[in-house]
């Protein structure tokens, strides 16, 4: 993860900051000496540096290994007195219609809280400032900070959901406008919604288990606050699930519209083919009718000396009658066959 950076460290006693900017070891020692809480924020911490913090606080190796490995789903695990929480804050890039989800690992103990993140996925400075304006929350200890971090993540999901919902509304309008790229847009947005589901689906359970932890510790005020957060998280999950169903329905509708368009095109082609076939039949019929007198005229136009019909008085009327008879017979035949 690169070089460890202490974003900030602070020591709080009864909800009031008594020190800041200390090295992690000094912050931990000061907090324990004064019966307070140390809040340490790490960014891009590599294995050795995170293990130093782990040794100072007695963090469980499995929790440390999970944090270093990354790519974890939202979850909560208990390791003795330490609780390991994974959160996934998200942002939505409207220009590219992409959901960018990151990972924040939180180690919570009786007198400390450690946040580990690659970048400023959660603005811990802003969270600190808001909490310091409400010392009664900080006075609840590390779980007061956990509640604030959870609320920060939940608040971040709102603009993400609004952005996705807006794009879904645009897709619904494009479904009936023959937009050439609507299928690809639906597929791409489906993928982003699935990623968002992965980030949020476990969050209600994580918050409920945090609430149970506080209830077991007899901290009813903190558990009530987390209960409200759990309801908000469930609403987020249901809203995102709704997006998935809407996109699935949009894809089905679009596929149906395309099939209907193809059916209409095929019907038009069939109708055109039938019309052309009728024209060909008519042309062929008239060509055959016109060929009959041509054939008779060609025969008698050869003017051979020993053609008896040339000397007959009725030879010429006979030839004309033969032409008319053959043409008439062909006309009647083609008429009965529906070619004319």
UniProtKB/TrEMBL annotation:
Q: What is this protein called?
A: Magnesium transport protein CorA
Give compartment(s). Cell membrane
- Keyword Zinc carried by entry: no
Quote any Pfam family the record assigns. Answer: CorA
Q: Which PANTHER family match?
A: CORA FAMILY METAL ION TRANSPORTER (EUROFUNG) (PTHR46494:SF1)
Topology relative to the membrane, per the entry? Multi-pass membrane protein
Q: Which UniProt keywords apply?
A: Cell membrane, Membrane, Transmembrane, Transmembrane helix, Transport
Q: What is its main location?
A: membrane
Transmembrane annotation, as ranges: 283-302, 314-334
Q: Which organism is it from?
A: Microbacterium terricola
Q: Name the SUPFAM superfamilies for this protein.
A: CorA soluble domain-like, Magnesium transport protein CorA, transmembrane region
Q: Where is the signal peptide?
A: none
Family label: Belongs to the CorA metal ion transporter (MIT) (TC 1.A.35) family.
């Amino acid at each position: 993860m690169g070089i460890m950076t202490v974003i900030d460290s602070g020591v709080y006693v009864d909800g009031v900051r008594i020190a800041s900017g200390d090295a992690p070891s000094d912050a931990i020692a000061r907090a324990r000496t004064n019966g307070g809480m140390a809040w340490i924020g790490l960014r891009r911490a590599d294995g050795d540096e995170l293990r130093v913090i782990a040794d100072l606080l007695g963090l469980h190796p499995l929790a440390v290994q999970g944090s270093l490995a990354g790519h974890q789903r939202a979850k909560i695990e208990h390791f003795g007195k330490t609780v390991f929480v994974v959160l996934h804050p998200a942002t939505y890039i409207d220009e590219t219609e992409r959901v960018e989800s990151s990972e924040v690992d939180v180690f919570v103990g009786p007198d400390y809280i450690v946040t580990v993140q690659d970048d400023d996925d959660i603005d811990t400075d802003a969270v600190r400032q808001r909490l310091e304006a409400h010392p009664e929350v900080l006075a609840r200890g590390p779980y007061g900070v956990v509640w604030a971090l959870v609320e920060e993540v939940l608040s971040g999901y709102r603009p993400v959901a609004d952005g996705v919902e807006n794009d879904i509304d645009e897709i619904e309008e494009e479904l009936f406008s023959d937009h050439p790229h609507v299928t690809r847009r639906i597929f791409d947005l489906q993928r982003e919604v699935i990623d968002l589901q992965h980030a949020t689906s476990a969050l209600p359970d994580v918050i409920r288990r945090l609430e149970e932890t506080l209830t077991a510790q007899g901290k009813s005020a903190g558990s009530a606050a987390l209960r409200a957060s759990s309801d908000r998280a469930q609403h987020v999950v249901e809203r995102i699930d709704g997006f998935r169903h809407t996109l699935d329905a949009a894809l089905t509708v679009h596929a149906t519209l395309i099939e209907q368009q193809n059916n209409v095109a095929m019907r038009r082609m069939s109708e055109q083919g039938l019309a052309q076939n009728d024209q060909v039949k008519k042309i062929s019929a008239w060509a055959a009718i016109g060929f009959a007198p041509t054939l008779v005229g060609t025969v008698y136009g050869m003017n051979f000396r020993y053609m008896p019909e040339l000397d007959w008085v009725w030879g010429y009327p006979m030839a004309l009658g033969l032409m008319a008879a053959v043409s008439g017979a062909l006309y009647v035949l083609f008429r009965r066959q529906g070619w004319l």
